[in-house]
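Database export, one record per block. Field names are fixed; values are copied verbatim from the stored entry.
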Amino acid sequence: MKSGCQSQTRKELRAANIDVQGRFVTSNATRKAGSKITTYLTRNNVTLTSTFTRYQPKVSPFDGKAFKKCSVVGNSGLLINSACGHEIDVADYVFRINVPEMDPYIQDVGYKTNFTTLNPSIFKRKNNYFASTRLTDKFNQDISQYQGLLMFPCFSDAAWVPICTRALQRLTPKKSLSIAFGDPDQFSLIRNYWVTKGLQKYPSTEIATAAIALCEEVHLYGFWPFVDSSMPHVTTHPVKYHYFDNTHMVRTHDMQAEFELLTRLHQVGVLRLHIRACSPERAGLGTGDGDTVKGMNREPVDKQQKRIVIEKLWDNV
């Protein structure tokens, strides 16, 4: 990776008052019980209650930290049959997004977890807001596979605060997993920074931003905005939005614009974006079933053309 471009990006992040080491997540050093927080998306003032301060760390978990090599793992179906699991796990620090299912996909996605996000919308989709003991037990079982830090972006939307409160009240703590909450002020600054780079919608790249700030090498896996791919390891068409389920792409983000931005960062050496199989001789022996995914849209011609152009960039990599 080209360290000059990385250094410049880090300087720009600092100049934009983005402080990943000190303020990416709330802590008792930066946010006190009873203080007011302005939510990131809805711009409402909410009160930080003791339910949250009980779990948030005393100081930032990234204070004074830096890592040699980091993996940031998205959830695209492009990971199926990629055999990237080992390569992901050998990183010093692994970021994952929205508590993805890892077993039985370990060969393709790995199992190491250091920092994992959990969007509160999942509490509705998977746990029906903990309407029963069974659903509460499922929530605790789902997060039991994770180690390290589990980050809830509870203060992105005022409506999520009571939902997070309910989740925390039903959480069964374990020593190997700490809880943290994304700081909405930092998320706003991150969004403003990427707007200057041409990204207009709310980014889903907060975690990639954190990795750029913290890691000497940043490797991204499972980021793919297109509904198909001509990569040799891909046998499921269209490509699933999530490798572990059949959900569809959300409209909150502009995934194609984000991916084009990530591609530019890849080209100048700020990060390394992996879209090929990591171990070609093992690819195709993993979790893919070669199915056509029912109910998913076929690829529009204009997006197909953009995808082909991007895939060709990797021909000489």
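Remark 1: The domain at 3-316 is CATH 3.90.1480.20 (sialyltransferase cstii, chain A).
Remark 2: Residues 255-268 form the longest helix (14 residues).
End of record.
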